[in-house]
Amino acid sequence: MTIHEILKEYWGYDTFRPLQEDIINAVLRGNDTLALLPTGGGKSICFQVPALAKDGLCLVISPLIALMKDQVQNLKTKGIPALSIFSGMSFLEVKKTLQNAVHGNYKFLYVSPERLETNLFLEYLPAMNINLIAVDEAHCISQWGYDFRPPYIRIAQLREYLQQTPILALTASATVTVQNDICEKLIFSKKQQRFQQSFERPNLSYSVFNVTGKQNKLLEILNNVKGSAIVYCKSRRHTKDIADLLLLNKINASYYHAGLTTEERNKRQEDWINNTTRVMACTNAFGMGIDKPNVRVVIHYDVPDCLENYYQEAGRAGRDGKRAYAVLLYNSKELEDLKLQSGIRYPAKEEIKKVYTAIMNYLQIAAGSGEGISFDVDLAAFTTAFKINILTATYAIKTLEQEEIIRYNEVFFKPSTLVFNCYKDQLNDFENQYPQLEAVIKGLLRSYEGIFDFPATIYETQLAKFIQKKLPELIKELQQLNKLGIVEYSPRKDKPQITLLQNRMYADSFVINLTDYLQRKQNFEKRIESIYKYIQQTNTCRSQLIASYFNDLTIKKCGICDNCINQNDVVISIEEFENIAAKIFQHLAEKPLLPDELMKKLAGVRKEKFWKVTDYLQAEKKIYFNKEGEMQK
User: Fold this and answer.
1) pLDDT reported for residue 597
2) Residues with Cβ < 8 Å from 493, sequence gap 6 or more?
3) What band does 263 get if pLDDT is binned at 50, 70 and 90?
């Protein structure tokens, strides 16, 4: 099929979004390509369509397990066979997945960058017919960016095995320095092409408010702007506090952060996507890869630490093209704290060494040993036991990760596995001896294929429903089967983990690359400066401020952010104001209208005056935006 036929067949679209077709054609010509597409710009189609247009398998590298799972499920729903390998899978599960990638009729294999270096992956790689390497979240490759992840640097080693295979690097936000670094680290060929979509979001109104009482402002915004909303917070505790506040004020809300169990996170995310929950109060662990076009407002309750994150998170509003709002709330103390962040995020070398030594002692690792071993770790218990500030420990661990001394998985999830240790004919005798366990044995055999041959991933909640038992009772019976030696049952893990990437260093040989470390600190300070400037600036269009940071100097003033509206300094007489307001009420009495539709009906009224009047009417609660982004009386 042609790329247009593929788009129509699997996605139901007749045309591509801006730049998508250019990127796809560059890939099909075999060119290494960098695509900078803002949040909601349709990045996945840029590698999924060309991969379907060619023979072979597309290797997709992504650091986000939730995003991998979502995309694989979406592809399967479309009838496109896809696989994924992520942390928590057993050796046998990974091996079987790789065998399927080699011998099966699969089109996509999603992997984390860490997996590319394993001997098992490299053993199967030459037998895979890989037609494209897609590197998602490509900014992670650059230590000068805001989300550096060392395993990304080694993606370029794939070039040794796949010399003729093009690489497509995708990211939503990267400065020119980071873009250049991506192309250099991935060893792009001279035929490389770069594409950058405009950062203009004409339907998204940015605004910043300096408020002492954030709770009241939050309630005011959510009461004025109806429909789906996200409230981003910096701390997990804050998310729950805000959800409770909203519920007390009869606003349907929930909260989400990485400390919840996988089931809780999935359930809350689904409820929000399906509009059962209106407002999600969350940390930045929420939102990646979620395709929900009708979000009407994104509120940052706390100041983000860089424009890259802010732009991505704010950009989750209004993907349907209808009017939406991105609101940032701050107070003076937060701006003071912002300037202190550099010292907190980048502790002194001696502080890092102290945390490293404490971790090794906590895990009881002897000097010269430990490489490759993983441990469950409770960061709160660790910092309490060693009297270390939890923020100092967190950022010291981040540095130790970037120096490739350890790996820290904050959200490590390993599902439960089970395999039978006996022969099938021995089960009859066992069931006669333990009739009370017959139901769980039959349930396992009917639910999971190959459970005699290798450990199968099992889901206790589903199994309990299937055999009509209460979950605690089922788990007790699985533990009894394990104790009796009939099965080998490994319960799920859902705790943070530390993996040692090298043996414990002796005290006098502890070393980190201070030159790179201090350069990363300096780059962080520049990013802090940028978000500080964005907040404090009252004369420049906010859309232009964001776009210029990413070197997009083409966009015009948006006309709808707080700065544009305030700068217009529109003077309206009482008579003119009442005349415009009357016309607005008249048209909205007939039916709700999108702002653009309403403006067209008000022929001769300047855009600035229109927004001045509607902003006032909205503040006075005489009109409001419904969940479809329409104005309504």
Assistant:
1) 86
2) 88, 376, 412, 413, 414
3) confident
